[in-house]
From TrEMBL:
One of its GO terms (cellular component) is plasma membrane. InterPro entries: Na/ntran_symport, SNS_sf. NCBIfam families: Na_transp (NF037979). The keyword Signal does not apply. This is Transporter. It comes from Sinocyclocheilus grahami (Dianchi golden-line fish).
Length: 606
């Protein structure tokens, strides 16, 4: 099925607002104006497109949540934070923070039928800058996230060679004097063949960020290809994305389970899995382990990036988002745990082959999927089969996340400037092309010979520093200022029943406290960006650190700027302006579909 356009039902009742409904047990049908006139946006002029089927929304959301972090971050974090014992704080944080906040974002997006910028501006005008900040951070992230897809494409193409090029030291890019065909263990002067392939062949990396070294033209061409794939998957909006996710969101699971079945049969796999799961109960007494669990849930599900709000805005008004919330959250966590078995069974096998401790091989981040795992394939039976399948899986995992992040920017443009921009570009497809083209240009610094240092700097100050500030202010605006009571009415309007006590308690108390705790911990335990480990660690110069903080401020700055703009443009005394700025402007007549039967009767008395 294609995308259905919701037809706006003509309502014979007069306008009434959410704020007025709250103040009365029985809503009176009369001529009550909204607290503030709604903004003139594209939604009011044209019906908003919707997902062709509910399954498309679920698959797109699962595909966005389940990304590369599930493969390279969670397994390493789990064994470093107490092994099987880490699953206790992880699951607690999932139910107290992850599920409630995802449900909150789905509610906001589906009810307002707007992207994060305009939906948050209606919910809490004082913090309208939070919505814009989420768009900025998502777009900044997508400019370097696609570089990972570029590397994956490079490895995929080279995995079809007669012999895997990272399996030996007899290549032109190898430094023969310190190259090892296995893992060097404690021999700090040696590098594995796969590490040298990544450093000297793929990246041709320089000695630091101050040495750009020129563009890697092979990666340049693959970056063009990566962005072209993204464009042709999303250029028709949810109409095209909804079809693509049937493959990109499901295919990784076939590969993941195939790898799991293969890996657990390898010698040494049991030791790797035990190393991954062996509980260290004393770790539960460390505050940082609980903070790590909350941060992993938060980052993995993708809260505060604006993508979940944006995708939910294309739902039908009465879609059961509570069911979808559970599906997305639990699928995300289950995938992380399965990926842990896949990764550590393979690492245990490598430890057995090279007679090394598992701890000497285990790592996280790009090093796991572009150095350690390629080395694993070089010793596996039928390596020519597993290597291409693994990198295709990485491409699918990354592309789903990339779709959602780019779509946030497109949704913002169409919601806020649709008529004006379409007057210039004529077609939405050209707007998407412009967004992708700018993202490609901003990604070029990452595929220079010094690009890995730029990549690490961007990732540290975007995904680590900025995100928790945005998350805190988003939760503050929605759950505390807009209020749990209003949020409950929105859900009752859509689903015909209020959220249960568990969600109301989480929104009112537990989730804000957890987010604040993560933010404080991130500030207290802040460390500057680094690249590499131990003796090979590269320390960034001061000017690069300044650039990193500027990258953080590119998104964060919109929060105070939005608040100042709202207070400046609102009339009255300072106290009156502040009161108006925290008053929601949601007009129930502005939604394009109305619930029927029981939920209508809830708001309109005879």
């Amino acid at each position: 099925m294609g995308v259905g356009a919701d037809k706006k039902a003509e309502s014979t009742s007069s306008k009434f607002t959410l704020q007025q409904l709250e103040g009365k047990e029985e809503a009176e049908l009369g001529h009550a104006e909204a607290v503030r006139p709604a903004k003139d946006d594209l939604q009011s002029a044209e019906p908003r497109e919707t997902w062709g089927r509910r399954l498309e929304f679920v698959l797109a959301s699962v595909g966005y949540a389940v990304g590369l972090g599930n493969v390279w971050r969670f397994p390493y974090l789990c064994y470093r934070s107490g092994g099987g014992a880490f699953l206790i704080p992880y699951l607690i944080m999932l139910f107290l923070c992850g599920i409630p906040l995802l449900f909150m974002e789905f509610t906001v997006g589906q009810y307002t039928r707007l992207g994060p910028v305009h939906s948050l501006a209606k919910i809490c005008p004082l913090f309208k800058g939070v919505g814009l900040a989420t768009v900025v951070i998502s777009y900044v992230l997508c400019t370097y996230y696609n570089v990972l897809m570029t590397w994956a494409l490079y490895y995929l193409l080279h995995s079809f060679s007669p012999s895997l090029p990272w399996q030996s030291c007899n290549n032109t890019w190898n430094a023969v004097g310190n190259c090892s065909t296995g893992f060097p263990g404690n021999a700090t002067h040696l590098q594995s063949a796969s590490q040298q392939f990544f450093d000297h062949k793929v990246l041709e990396m320089t000695t630091g960020i101050e040495h750009a070294g020129g563009i890697r033209w092979e990666l340049f061409g693959l970056l063009v290809l990566a962005w072209a794939i993204v464009y042709f998957c999303i250029f028709k909006g949810v109409k095209s994305t909804g079809k693509v996710v049937y493959f990109t969101a499901t295919f990784p699971y076939f590969i993941l389970f195939a790898l799991l079945i293969n890996n657990v049969q390898l010698p040494g796999a049991r030791d790797g899995i035990l190393f991954f799961l062996m509980p260290n109960w004393s770790k539960l007494l460390e505050v940082q382990v609980w903070v790590n669990a909350a941060a992993q849930i938060f980052n993995s599900i993708g809260i505060s990036f604006g993508s979940m709000i944006s995708m939910a805005s294309y739902n039908k008004f009465n879609n059961n988002i509570l069911r979808d919330t559970y599906i997305v959250s639990l699928a995300n966590s289950a995938t992380s745990i399965v990926a842990g078995f896949v990764i550590f069974s393979a690492i245990g096998y490598m430890a057995h082959i090279h007679n090394l401790p598992v701890d000497d091989i285990a790592t996280d981040g790009p090093g796991l999927v572009f150095v350690v795992y390629p080395e694993v394939f070089s010793t596996m039976p039928v390596s020519q089969l597993w290597a291409p399948l693994f990198f295709i899986m990485l491409l699918c995992l990354g592309l789903d996340s990339q779709f959602a992040m780019v779509e946030v920017a497109v949704t913002f443009i169409m919601d806020g400037f649709g008529k004006k921009v379409l007057h210039v570009f004529k077609r939405k497809e050209l707007i998407v092309l412009a967004v992708c083209s700018v993202g490609f240009l901003l990604g070029i610094p990452h595929i220079t010979r010094g690009g890995i240092y730029v990549f690490q700097l961007m990732d540290h100050y975007t995904a680590v520093v900025s995100l928790m500030f945005l998350a805190f202010f988003e939760v503050l605006a929605i759950t505390l200022i807009f209020g749990v009571r209003r949020l409950s009415i929105m859900l009752e309007n859509m689903l015909g029943k209020k959220p249960n006590l568990f969600f109301r308690v989480c929104w009112q108390f537990l989730s804000p406290m957890l987010v604040l705790g993560i933010l404080i911990s991130s500030i207290v335990q802040y460390t500057p960006a680094r690249y590499g480990k131990s003796y090979q660690t590269y320390t960034y110069p001061l000017w690069a650190e300044v650039v990193g903080w500027f990258i953080s401020l590119v998104s964060i700055i919109w929060i105070p700027l939005g608040a100042l703009h709202e207070l400046w443009t609102t009339e009255g005394s300072l106290l009156q302006r502040l009161k108006k700025s925290i008053t929601p402007t949601i007009d129930l007549e502005s939604v394009s579909e109305k619930p029927s039967g029981e939920s209508i009767a809830l708001f309109a008395a005879a």
